[in-house]
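Bug #77: duplicate submission created two jobs. Keeping one. Sequence:
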Amino acid sequence: MLLRADKIEKEYGIQQVFHIDEITVEDGDRIGLVGRNGTGKSTLLQVLNGSVPADAGHIIRNCEIAMIRQDAVVEAESDESYISRVGLRGSAMKSGGEKMRLAIASALSSHAPLLFADEPTTNLDVEGIEMLQKMLRGYRGAIVLVSHDRKLLDEVCTKIWELEDGALRIFEGNYTAWMEQKEREREFQQFEYEQYTREKYRMEKAIIEVECKAQNMVKRPRRMGSSEWMLYKGIASEQQKNVSNRSAAMKSRMEHLERKEKPSRLPQVSMTGMHIDSIKAKYAIKIGHLTVSYDDHMVLCDTGLMVESGKKTFLTGENGAGKSTLLQALVNGTPEVSITEDARIAYFSQSLMELQEEKSVLENVCYDAAEGESICRAVLANLYLSKEDLHKKVKVLSGGERVKTALAKILVSGSNLLILDEPTNHMDLYTMEGLEKMLLAFQGTLLVVSHDRRLVEKLADTVYEIKNGKIYLS
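Kept job's structure:
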């Protein structure tokens, strides 16, 4: 056993982050820690490794713990062989991706028996993520991994910790096995709820029938004379008492009927029913002989791209390859770019979210929407914004909430050509699943830049890679 924690608690102000009875990590464990943004995943890792104190409980650490942090700033020198393996070029580093690679190298070079990795794919491109995956799979110690990369969780983890409502549940298997088990649980909860409501309705109906029968017993039948009724009344009163006792017994049974809550399910969004006009031309976008350079650096060199209408096209490539540059050239109307006349474009970039700060989330999404308020609410719910969140002003939103609001606004805009630049960055797994389902059902044309390998696998009709200034069919 490398680590054990008992009865640990953590609070910030009056808000309890978590209360966990027991945690153990054993040699060889490959654990994925999942939960919505803000549930306390990073805090839990920090409490377990001792960098943040617990408010209650006891933790036994039997080994050194290495840590890869989301906001890693590495000062110590790292093992040169690891620097080479993660693809760094010397010590002069500028990009977030290079800083994260060095943080990974520093943690792995310690050879600690236990590794905590908190969103280690942040700022990494697909090549970097695949290298990280290979290194984690070959790591000799135990691992606790927080990641929004679903494929990484599938390939590395054999156990899932789910942090929800301050409690920790443990599931055997990888991310996909966890998702399947959660779905089975929801289906069983729905079955139990339906059985409960059916039985409750049957008992309520039976009670009403018995009570009606009891009331009728003390009424004189029309054809019965007064003297006859006087003789029968005593018998009827006794029978009524027996029936009333039956009613009371049935009410008691219903009160003791084990209550089953309706399982929470997201409202279904029918993307096929949205107001989206199809693009008649075979190609929504044509790019030919596009060259873009900054100072003396050539980003794109005499390259081209054809985006087929009604298809979901993805762009991949290393950090700095020119993916976002290509999208910006497209949106800015560069002469080498031709967009069909009947295309209505919506563009998402995390650096260009046009939201009205003083208006609420719902007001922003409904403003100029092609859909009604009920659809807008359903889309927001599928991006895991709560009913309370809908009435927050944009100026108080977190970065993740702003992203969700901007994406929802695009999805209900009626646009038939969506251009999305890294839409899943910093999203939690639940939101990514919701967005994936909606994009899968989208009937228009998609052009997406993404490092999310599972999103590409599930959605892409065509994948292009930008490499050395050129665009290649992947």
